[in-house]
Amino acid sequence: MATGKPVVASNIAGYASVLTSGSEGILVPPKQEVPLAQAITSLIKHEALRRRMGAAGQQTASGYGWSRFPADYELLSELLMTKTPPA
After folding, report:
1. Which strand (E) or helix (H) includes residue 27?
2. Is 10 in contact with 30 (CB distance < 8 Å)?
3. Do 50 and 43 contact (CB within 8 A), yes or no?
4. 16 near 66, Cβ under 8 Å?
5. What is this structure's pTM?
6. Which residue in 13, 26, 59, 62 has the most C-beta neighbors within 10 A?
7. Closest Cα partner for 37 from 25, 28, 49, 47?
8. Spatial separation of the C-alpha atoms in residues 46 and 51, rounded to whole Å
9. Which domain covers residue 69, as residue numbers?
């Protein structure tokens, strides 16, 4: 999304929680080849749709990143630095 491209993803909790407006891309049922192919074909055929979804995705993606999660990043850094590497 950050690159301005529309998203086609499985409709699972992780993706559905990010694509909340539905304008950033297309969610398809997991493990369903036909809806996946239809979504991709639709984006190939409709340039205006690709552009709208790409722009909406960039807007959504701008709300994510490490700067949004400084406490999480600090905790992750601490965990990685204190973890003893496997022998």
Report:
1. strand 25-28
2. yes
3. yes
4. no
5. 0.71
6. 26
7. 28
8. 9
9. 7-82
